[in-house]
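chain below, 218 aa
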Amino acid sequence: MILLRDVNKTYSEGRVAFHALKDVNLEINQGEFVSILGPSGSGKSTLMHLIGGLDRPTIGTVVVNYQSLGILSDKQLTKFRNQNIGFVFQFFHLLPYLTALENVRLPLMYSDYKIDRNHHAAEMLRYFGLGEKLKSKINELSGGERQRVAIARALICDPAIILADEPTGNLDSKNGEYVFETLTTLHQLGKTVVVVTHDEHLAKRAHRIIHVKDGHVS
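prediction:
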């Protein structure tokens, strides 16, 4: 369950205040597949960052899985994200000096899982058809392969919530279709999936569309 109540987010640029989100009230139920649709600069990525605990609201309350994020310290928030939320980004956010296996394994270093981290990460990569790329550095992979590594990393701690911010933005149509099919499968497996996009065609494939414009949500 994701709940936002009276959420505002303001950024200060010198003497100028930019209101990225304005009086947002939103509820996303467990197991929903939701698209957040809006043009560039509308506030949709800011909304995603607040839901994921990557940023904090200026005013208002954000509750995820019955946990109010505002009362958590930075350390507690990091642990909460690691245990509950998997992130997939447009620009992958993979570490180029690590191998595919090391990138996927990284979240396990901060988790309480008592498992063979290398084995678990390798199995996740094999699931996504990257069994021959375990030792490949990120710059040796194609865009589609990098996004599959990013999805494997997002899933490695078995989070209940998947947040995908423009996950097809840097991919061709074939790889973009693969990514969206993967997100659909994750939803069918019971995950809550929230996808930020400016692509109306992709947004319509979710079960519900949340529109963001000029910081307002409808």
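The chain has a mean pLDDT of 92. The first strand starts at residue 2 and ends at 13.
thats it, cya
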